[in-house]
Every structure is written in structure tokens, then in C-alpha cells.
Amino acid sequence: MSEKRVIRAAAVQIAPDLETPLGTLDRVLAAISDAAAKGVQFIVFPETFVPYYPYFSFVRPPMASGGDHMRFYENAVVVPGPVTEAVSQAARRHKMVIVLGVNELDHGSIYNAQLIFDTDGKLLLKRRKLTATFHERMIWGGGDGAGLKVVETAVGRVGALACWEHYNPLARYALMAQHEEIHAGQFPGSLVGDIFGDQTEVTIRHHALESGCFVVNSTGWLTEEQIASITPDEGLQRGLRGGCMTAIISPEGRHLVDPMRAGEGLLVADLDMSLITKRKRMMDSVGHYARPELLSLLINDQPAVPMRSADTIRTVPHTVANADASDEQGATEHVD
Known about the structure:
Layout: E1 6-13, H1 23-37, E2 42-44, H2 56-59, H3 66-75, H4 82-94, E3 97-106, E4 109-117, E5 123-128, E6 140-141, E7 151-153, E8 156-162, H5 169-176, E9 182-187, H6 194-211, E10 214-219, H7 224-230, H8 234-237, E11 247-249, E12 265-272, H9 274-280, H10 320-335
Parallel strand pairs: 1-2, 2-3, 4-6, 8-9, 9-10
Antiparallel strand pairs: 1-12, 3-4, 4-5, 7-8, 10-11
């Protein structure tokens, strides 16, 4: 029999530093060190945690948020760059797989990016959130199918989605079909109210069940002082509370440790990887429980770029329209 494989995982719920450009990075590195002391091998941080989630855009109109938006650009993360190098060194030092959410600056645009570092410090994946939600559309550009990848890490096959991407069943299926074993979920936290946390719990538990994988989900947190610094309006401040659901879920849809709904802390749980087989022997939604001859996913996994040279353009595929024309021509020739 194969040796039992157990991975110690952690989900982080802490507040960013809204004032100091590199302050949030310092908090990330400190949390990694704390987790390493607990024997953690895999850790997940909240959505766009570095430098911070754009909470200002949820409660302030565009005309009043120009200064905040400019400061957001100034503090955004270039990949690769000093931030990714610091996290890479931490991953290598502690032999830890790290999933970090950043606001990625690429020339004139910012993207919601998820970064996965392996234990040797290598950046295995940089993916961008496919579609920004509501107020986020003023802040981020859109990602592409090139990032819908599951990567092989030292702890197993890891996939990641950000926030309401979990409401896109085809995006989730793309990762399921690549047989992810550990799924990293990232949400902003401190947003909308407790109903947001409730909805997040339903979503991540369902994905664990449907995919037959572990879900390590991390949400952010804002202190009362930070909320007041974002907006002095007490009515709007209510929209910056609640919404947290930091949790670690088994392939059977169970919490492996009590979830964190408020405050700061580190959730740690051991992932018994044999539970994946235990779940999938009953229901493998991309294997014996699938009907690919009836239902399957077609994905465009090419990077979306604003310009390419003519010699890189692929041959035009046999389209439905061309197929219809060919069939019609063939039918005519047969009659003749």
C-alpha cells in the first residue's frame, strides 16, 4: 500500500496595511514565518492582499476616488519584481507552497492576480481574475483562459480562483477537469455584510464536494480604524463589515477546523489526501460520473494580447459556417 500523504495547510485572515506601501508585504512575510513554525506546507492569503483590496471603490464614487485610485497605481505590484522576489525567498526558505493575491500592474492597467509559488521559490502560475465584479470593473482589467491552469506543486495539484469566479461553473470545471487536489479560494472579506460570508461558505463547500478536492479559502479583514479611514460616512461603513469566511474544507464538504468569521488569525489543518479518493470513488464529476460524449468544455487557453505578428496567427479552423457550406456542396454534387 502507498504511504499515507498528509499536507498541513493554512488560511490567513489578517488586515492589510493601508498606509505604508510595503507594510502589507511585511505582514505577509511575518504570517509565513508564523505558519512555518507550525509546520505549515501550504498557505493561502486573501484576494489582492498586496498592497490591499480596493475597498475605496465600493463606497466612494469615481469622481471622489481619483486620489485613492492614483495611490493604488503607485503601490501596485509588478510581476516579477521586488514583492515576488521577497515571497519567492520566503517560499524557498520555509519550503512552503504560497498562494498570494496581488494587484498586478502591467503598464497602464491593474489586474487581480493570483500567484502560486512552489517550495523551491519558483513562480509556477500567475493568473488574472477573468471578470471584475460590479465596482471592481473601474479598477481591474480582465484575465484570460491562459491562467485557468492547475499546477503540479510539492504538495500536489493546486488550482485557484478569486471570489465570484466561483460562481462561474465553467471556470471551476476547467480546474476540476485538470484534477486539482487542493483549491485555493481568495475573497476580500470585510465587505457587504454577513450574508457575503454565508454565500462564500456555500460556494466553497459545494466546490469541494463537486471537485472532490480540498478547499483552502482566505478572506481579508479591516479594523474599525481602517474602515473609518476609508469613509467617514457611518451608513457606508456598514458595507465594509462582515463578509469573512476563512475556512479549510475537506472533499466531503466538511470544515476541518472552525471557520473564522471575524478578527485576525491563522487557520491550520491537516489534509489527509486519501479523502480525495474516498470522495471520488463515489462521485468523480470529471471521470466515471461524467458524460463527455454529451457534455464537455471547450476552452480558449491562449493568452489575450493586444497585438501579434501575422506569422503567429494560426490557420483558421474549420468553422460551423464552412462545414455547412461544404456539406451543402457535397449534397449538390451527390445529386448531380
